[in-house]
Write a structure and sequence with these properties.
580 residues, alpha/beta
Length: 580
């Protein structure tokens, strides 16, 4: 930790708009005063943007307007001027074709909102899956003092005495209906228990994983990740974060000071310990690219390989986020990592202190939820990065959510050319498939879907489910929801739509999987693979206008974070040019 606070007082960038008696400054101040703001609020104090991803079509974030008011209280208390700014909000539950397609657009919009307007620091008010990484990406690109406040998870769901996890039980109950083990009426009744309070997924899905990543990176105050959305302590966290950002501006504490290589390594190990989402891979790679940190898939495998999964939460385990919070939340996990020598203890956080000082006194109040290492769900958790002739640039799997007996497997490929082909054939009893086969889905990567939708956890054929089989090896270039489970290989790179080897897999090919050896192999000769690739032609249907064209033309592979190629490594907040 080598950060040295800047001198205070000093002239801030907002004074380019508000500080002075010239025509331009009077123009800017005068318009702001139509909201009833006193003149002395423009005296050089920090102007803090509250970047709010509230939207009624982003259900996880629908309560953020209340939290924004609490953030404002904190900013005023610390002597700043809060300004709430709505920013692009992409919901995984409602955006088509997938919210992931718009993560990069949202980050670009956030970046330009910060660059072009009179802000000295920002509070990133986020919740749903893509809002957290997109705002962190935008903040990383501008390198303006920033702090994350997440909306928190919803309360536990219950159906007939059984815990119901967001997403996790949707997949479970849906498969039970197809297997004839649950009626459609029961499924509809269970719907009411799936989302029974404001907040994001109550499982360790992508929203909770990314909230944990923000805290592990040091970009949120300690304890932020797990507080339930409706708990009064979530409001307290918002208010003290509002106070903190004012001091961060005075100190000039920036994302580049916090999000170092050590911070990303801390986050990767944390993701392994909590059984976090595979989506964290593409998001952290993208955030690192924006802040200028050299982070690769090899870092994910190197840092995460030997981390035990000690948080017993769905989809890997049995509990939910509410119980994780009561047990002590992420500070307990970070303390465990530190005690095991797996945490860079001196990594700086937005508190201005090293991460270890924030967590060293954390107490575990429930060892059934946050397990002792010797009772871990798996001793080698994390995200395993697979390579081989089928995935030269890598593919990922989450061992803690997979079936142990399938982690080493050889099976016959059953290939679906795209998601429509899958939907057309998967329920057909004539489909030539048994439980030893490997389901292969193509053309669902960043360019292929487009946007890399969460379809990688393909539902099994009904005739397999009716035999009592609940898992098979599945391979695709898609993503899967962080709430999902199974032996699912994802993010296969290069993707099929760009001519990666996945594009030329044929039904009947044999595929070898060995997670321990990090191997994913298509059992054909190099010569045959080369011949197939030479005859490959790109699928039709690429968009020719609008953002879809921009995305498909410029999006990079999942192995580097699926960011737009012209946005990586561009950092530095420029004052917008005044046109008046």
């Amino acid at each position: 930790m080598s950060f040295k606070p800047a001198d205070w007082p000093r002239r801030l960038r907002s004074q380019e708009w508000f500080g002075g008696t010239g025509r331009d400054q009077i123009y800017h101040r005068g318009w702001m005063k139509n909201q009833g703001l006193p003149h002395d609020l423009f005296d050089g104090r920090p102007v803090i943007g509250i970047l709010n991803t509230w939207s009624e079509l982003t259900p996880c974030n629908a309560h953020l307007r209340d939290l924004a008011e609490r953030v404002k209280h904190g900013i005023y208390e610390a002597g700043g001027l809060p300004v709430e700014v709505p920013v692009f909000s992409a919901s995984e539950s409602s955006f088509r074709p997938t919210a992931m397609m718009f993560r990069n657009l949202a980050s670009l919009a956030v970046e330009e909102a910060m660059r072009g307007q009179p802000m000295d620091g920002v509070v990133l008010l986020v919740g749903c899956d893509k809002t957290t990484p997109s705002l962190l990406m935008g903040a990383a690109s501008t390198d303006m003092p920033s702090i994350v406040v997440t909306g928190g998870p919803m309360l536990n769901g219950y159906f007939r005495g059984e815990r119901v996890g967001s997403g996790t039980h949707l997949w479970k109950f849906s498969e039970a209906v197809k297997a004839g083990e649950m009626t459609a009426d029961d499924f509809l009744e269970a719907e009411g228990s799936m989302s029974r309070s404001p907040g994001s997924c109550n499982t360790m899905g992508t929203a909770s994983s990314m909230a944990s990543m923000a805290e592990a990176l040091g970009m949120a105050l300690s304890g932020n990740a797990a507080i339930p959305a409706v708990d009064s302590r979530r409001r307290v966290m918002a208010q003290i974060s509002g106070r903190r950002i004012v001091q961060m501006v005075k100190d000039d504490l920036k994302p580049s000071d916090v999000m170092t290589k050590q911070a990303f390594e801390n986050a990767i190990r944390t993701n392994g310990a909590i059984g976090g989402s595979t989506n964290a891979v593409v998001h952290l790679l993208a955030i690192a690219g924006r802040v200028g940190v050299d982070l690769t898939l090899d870092d994910w495998d190197r840092c995460g390989r030997d981390v035990a999964t000690i948080v017993d939460l769905m989809p890997s385990g049995k509990y939910l986020m509410e119980e994780f919070f009561y047990a002590g939340g992420l500070p307990v996990v970070l303390k465990r990592l530190g005690e095991a020598g797996l945490l860079h203890k001196d990594a700086l956080t937005v508190s201005g202190e090293p991460i270890w000082e924030q967590v060293c006194d954390a107490m575990n109040h429930n060892e059934q939820v946050i397990l002792p290492v010797e009772k871990a769900l798996t001793q080698q958790g994390g995200i395993a990065v697979l390579r081989g002739n089928l995935a030269p640039k890598g593919a990922v799997i989450k061992p803690s959510a997979a079936s142990p007996h399938l982690l080493k497997h050889r099976g016959r490929a059953v290939v679906f050319e795209d998601i429509d082909d899958y939907k057309a054939r998967i329920n057909d009893d004539a489909l030539d498939v048994d439980e030893t086969c490997v389901l292969v889905l193509k053309n669902c990567g960043p360019k292929g879907y487009p946007g890399m939708a969460e379809v990688g956890n393909m539902g099994l054929p009904p005739k397999i489910l009716k035999k009592g089989i609940t898992d098979m090896v599945r391979i695709s270039d898609a993503r899967m929801s962080g709430t999902a489970y199974g032996t699912v290989i994802l993010h296969t790179s290069p993707e099929a739509a760009t001519g990666g080897p996945l594009a030329v897999v044929r039904s009947g090919d044999m595929i070898d999987l060995d997670v321990a050896a990090r191997r994913l192999h298509l059992d054909i000769s190099d010569a045959e693979l080369a011949e197939r690739l030479s005859g490959w032609t790109a699928p039709a249907g690429q968009s020719d206008s609008g953002y879809a064209w921009l995305h498909q033309t410029h999006v990079q592979g999942a192995d580097t974070g699926a960011d737009l190629d012209f946005l990586r490594g561009c950092r530095g907040a420029a004052v917008g040019r005044d046109s008046h």
